[in-house]
Amino acid sequence: MPLLRTAILCMFALSFSTSLYAIDVASKHTFGAFSIGGVYSQIASENTGLNNAGEYQSKRGGVLFGLKRGVVFKEKYLLSLYIDGTAGREHKNGLFSFALGAQGGFRLFGGRLLTLIGGGFGVSNLATSLSEQYNIYGYHAKLELFIDITKGYGLSIGYMYGFNYESKPTLPKHFDTSSIMLAFSFYDFNI
Q1: pTM
Q2: Which residues lie below 8 Å from residue 189, measured CB to CB, with a gap of 6+?
Q3: Three-state DSSP class for 8?
Q4: What b/e readout covers 123-141, taking b as 16+ CB neighbours within 10 angstroms?
Q5: Contact 144, 157 (CB under 8 A)
Q6: CB within 8 Å of 11: residues ≥ 6 apart
Q7: 133, 171 contact by CB (below 8 A)
Q8: What domains lie within the chain, and their CATH numbers?
Q9: Residue 124's closest CA among 87, 92, 171?
Q10: Could you tell me the mean pLDDT of each successive run of 10 residues in the chain, 191 residues long?
């Protein structure tokens, strides 16, 4: 990670004015984005009945894929819809999740930095030792920061927290989920 941070700082230090590191100017009123990266998720609950201890806790990693489509107001205000999916191979049942939602945000420092906050609905699975598949679903909040490195290409860092996720009636109705996301992203403000 120190090498990655140093490389990013060097790119910013070279020049903000050259065409190679130019900011993607919002020439139209809509935008689209694509992200691919990694996610680290944690799901926890008490008194589940899924194991002898009664508590459920799972920490898993996977691949993240995301699409975004939105509108730009006054060249700096953003409103978008997103769809995210994750997949991983850890544990018996692996990791999968799917999320839909909306975000609002700002283009800061002339578009070099995007900040987004929003929420939506998500579905995920539980990693259990049982042969039966258990899924959970509920609402979540999402924070995201995008750093433009060159012409719309950059790094996205995000956090998503799902609250009061529910499952089958045989399980408790409260699962807390949290995910940290790191992805390479491309934002196009010319569509």
Answers
A1: 0.78
A2: 24, 25, 26, 27, 28, 31, 72, 111, 152
A3: helix
A4: bbbbbbeeeeebebebebe
A5: yes
A6: 21, 149, 150
A7: no
A8: 29-188 (2.40.160.20)
A9: 87
A10: 59 49 64 94 70 67 94 92 89 81 94 94 79 80 94 94 73 79 93 80
